[in-house]
TrEMBL record:
Keyword Iron belongs to the record: yes
Annotated positions binding Fe cation: 57, 59, 101, 103
Protein name per UniProt: Pirin family protein
Gene Ontology terms for molecular function: metal ion binding
Keywords linked to the UniProt accession: Iron, Metal-binding
Cofactor: Fe cation
Quercetin 2,3-dioxygenase C-terminal cupin domain segment(s): 146-234
Signal peptide: none
Keyword Metal-binding: yes
Length: 236
């Protein structure tokens, strides 16, 4: 089964300093049909005004990933984690038994555009942890780059779930393939650009979910610039 989630059907929250699109139910946006996809609980596309951000607040028992598309995102948390991430970098915070954190636009002049991603962990009340994966020169040279995994293989962030996050940036006309295991779930999110996936044309913010699907998933870059894709490989 293939689940379609068009960009325009997502929830939207606007708060002056924040313009946020929610793929799944989050905060004041609630849709019982969209509570997550397997262990993937949240994908919020946030645009935060210069100098603004999310003041310190608390989370527990969630793997939280931030993926910056434009600008800089400054993070601080009560476990000692902190830093500013730039486009192409991935930040990980495991909330564990409880952690307080803040996320602010690192600039007083330019907005920041990023994805906030939550994945439910495979264990409860662990020690909070933090890490960053910086963009590297060899990323995407072979099509897919592993960004997060259970054991941190190939320089990826080691998250606390049997889930793998791959990224890709196909140029217009370039083709990618990924073999799908029917015993796993997959969620393909287009962060930027356009692609064709299995004959479906997708634009920025669009997503497809794959459940009990097998065989190769073929993706071809479209539009006038390279796309930016995230593919979540999740336990069923």
């Amino acid at each position: 089964m293939i689940v379609e989630r068009p960009s325009g059907a997502r929830g939207r929250v606007q708060a002056g300093w924040l313009d946020s699109r929610h793929t799944f139910s989050f905060g004041s946006y609630y849709d019982p049909a969209w509570m997550g996809f397997g262990a993937l609980r949240v994908i919020n596309e946030d645009r935060v005004a210069p100098g603004a951000g999310f003041s310190p607040h608390r989370h527990a028992n969630m793997e939280i990933l931030s993926y910056v598309l434009e600008g800089g995102l400054a993070h601080q948390d009560s476990s000692g984690g902190g830093g500013t991430i730039r486009p192409g970098a991935l930040q990980w915070m495991s909330a564990g038994h409880g952690v307080e954190h803040s996320e602010y636009n690192a600039s007083d002049a330019q907005p920041v555009h990023f994805l906030q991603i939550w994945i439910q962990p495979d264990r409860l009340n662990a020690q909070p942890a933090y890490g960053q994966r910086e963009a590297a020169a060899g990323d995407y040279a072979d099509g897919w780059t592993l960004l997060a995994s259970p054991d941190g293989e190939h320089g990826s962030l080691a998250i606390r779930q049997q889930a793998w996050l791959h990224g890709a940036r196909p140029a217009p006309g370039a083709a990618l393939e990924r073999e799908l295991d029917p015993q796993r779930l997959y969620w393909l999110h287009v962060a930027r650009g356009e692609v064709e996936a299995g004959g479906r044309r997708l634009q920025a913010g669009d997503a497809l979910g794959y459940r009990e699907e097998s065989g190769p998933l073929r993706i071809v870059g479209a539009g006038g610039a390279p796309a930016d894709l995230l593919l979540f490989d999740l336990p069923a």
